[in-house]
Fold:
Amino acid sequence: MGLNTNSKKDLEDFTTYLIVERNFSGHTAKAYHSDILSFLVWMDEEDCANVNFSKVREYLHFIQKFNYKKTTIARKVASLRTFYKFLYRERKVNANPAMNLNAPKRPKTLPKFLTPDEVEQILNNIKIETPAGYRNRAILELLWATGMRVSELSGLNFGDLNLRNNEIRVFGKGAKERIVLVTDRAKSYLERYIETARPLIARGYGLPPEQEDSPVFINNTGYRLQTKTIRNVINEVVEKINLPKHVTPHVFRHSFATHLIENGADLRVVQELLGHASISNTQIYTHVSSQHLKEVYNETHPRA
Structure:
């Protein structure tokens, strides 16, 4: 199977548009690029500008045999809609053939979260005797204290820190800027990491002086720490303590939001701290909180 030359150029332009104009994260832009590339390969030598609704629907029927999850199918539909919306804007097509595609409904699942005791159990089982170990403790303390995404934490630079006021600037989805707040405990671990552990992590690699655009968290060669390493740190600790839950960096974010709401935080405040574009994205934590209250009620009430 081949790939139409015009379609290949359209895909390149589309990917640039996602990153430069739409401010998509690298991860999301890569996923959209992959989705459209698969579609174009299926199209073979046919120009994507000649596609109609029937052809797009035929493609969706074709990929059903791969047994993708509903969330994956929904993203592929979104990719096609966005791609053809871009081509329509560029006057490459006269209409968006993917506009009326029906995407499968995403299954509504409540986010998983940790209890405060479970979080403390994880934090207290991180070995901090080494520079990298102390860095890992500071990282998880920050995830728990701020609710930031793991990509946001990995992307932190020294210019983003305002620890005198217990504030950190982060850049979320779509490069949207917001301020998150830091507890005194997390701030203490972060400051001690910067002062004592960070200079020792990349010993022998000539770590440059700290500048505003220098990464806060680094690996053993002095480069920015990647999100995969943070996930591995959590996996190792959870496996060590035999915690019967699947824990990811995002579970820390869910736990942060859930416990704020359980303790009476205003929904709009939580929305701002999480960087949600819509309040509806934050409201799911009220359902989690209600479910948790019911579980506690059923476990503790003598007549439950």
Notes: Residues 279-300 form the longest helix (22 residues). The first strand starts at residue 161 and ends at 162. The CA atoms of residues 41 and 267 lie 45 Å apart.
